[in-house]
Fold:
Amino acid sequence: MRAILIDDEPLAMEHMEKLLKDIAVVEVIGKYLSPLQGLKAIMHEQPDVVFLDIEMPTISGIELAENIQSTCSNVHVVFVTAYDEYAVKAFELNAVDYVMKPIQRKRLNETIKRLQLFEDTNVEKGESTCTGMICCFQTLRFVWEGDELEAIDVHWRTTKAKELFAYLVHHRREPVGKEVLIDLFWAESEPEKGYAQLYAAIYQIRKTLASIGFDIEIKSREQTYMIDMQQIKVDIDEFERLEEIFNESHPELESVQKLLDLYSGDYLEKESYLWAESERERLRVFWLYFTQKTAEMLIQKKEHTKALLICQRVQALNPYSEEIYFMLMRLYDLLGERHFVEQQYHRLEDMLFEEYGTEPAPEISQWYQNWKGILA
Structure:
């Protein structure tokens, strides 16, 4: 592990170098009293980690870390300082660790172990042929997508961090104001405490993502956060490709079915986040529409049993759709299931009367009477 040290106190830097030399896995490739010279060396050498003092002349370690992250995003930063007042800001900047002076050997070993964990995660991620995917249908889940979907066990330190991450994924195409997030998640807190809680939650999210090897960035820019999914997929985006497939002259049924199967339940259904309600309803309507179109396509291909199974699932999710009752009646007729045709019609009558005080549409009633006449 290649390291650069930046500190305006020569004695403190020498002490750090001595401790690091005793750790076999670390090689100190540069020491700089000047933060600007240190930044130049970082850009040239591309070390694995920078140990960075916060209190320095000309430019603070916080500002320098922002420059490092914008130009050398793969370089890890460990803050070294005699003051704990910067901890919250350090967490916001996604520092790997925050070490207090005077530095203790045991504490530094913990930092190196944490850095090794980051490196090991990156190696595993680079060797893997799988693609990460975030699933939002039914509940928030993480999976590796290879030949099959492999679920990842994720431990969230707090439910607030989990919900904040879900909210950023929800707004993955736009920046979200920090004040908006504080008003939504920490409205009861004083502004200063609200910011501290937000920064701590962002830090927890970054640690959680790093621990499972998901290369997702949460970028802080001008009082906003924006999530950068990198190569990680979201099941919602995959699911919405249905519209593109149905615009083709001959939609491929296998591709359609694969995307429909992503809908394992309503959007973030188990979490019941109020802010997700409108998207939950939009995606449900989207699924119902394309599921019915798929059933119609299967009927045209005379694959009646497959169409029946799809329509049964639609009815379970949307028991107030008159159209789906009618489609099931016709499918049961095609399959010779007379009893179920009658059952669907009577269930439709009961539903319409109880919910709306109405009767089945004339088209459906006429079809049913004609059907009974044919069987008489």
Summary: The first strand starts at residue 2 and ends at 6. The mean pLDDT is 89.
